[in-house]
Design a protein that fits this description.
Organism: Phormidesmis priestleyi ULC007
Number of domains: 1
InterPro entries: HicB-like, TA_system_antitoxin, TTHA1013/TTHA0281-like
Strand order of the largest sheet: 1-2-3
Shape: elongated
Structural class: alpha+beta
Number of helices: 1
Pfam families: HicB_lk_antitox
Protein name: Type II toxin-antitoxin system HicB family antitoxin
Length: 61
């Protein structure tokens, strides 16, 4: 897995929302910043697996 820029923001409910701009729709969240980071790592892995399964190109950076 390559390196992807992750944007993390706190929402109005205090949850941390993580998004990967290079991977449209790849979004996750967590109650803490650390949890959001772990969750987005899993989301990135699943996103890339899905692209591979359907023979789609993997965007980098």
């Amino acid at each position: 897995m390559g390196k992807y820029r992750v944007l993390i923001e706190a929402d109005e409910d205090g949850m941390y929302v993580a998004e990967v701009p290079t991977l449209p729709g790849c979004i996750s969240q967590g109650q803490t910043r650390a949890e959001a980071i772990e969750n987005i790592k899993e989301a990135i892995a699943a996103y890339l697996e899905s692209l591979d399964a359907y023979g789609e190109p993997v965007p980098y950076f």
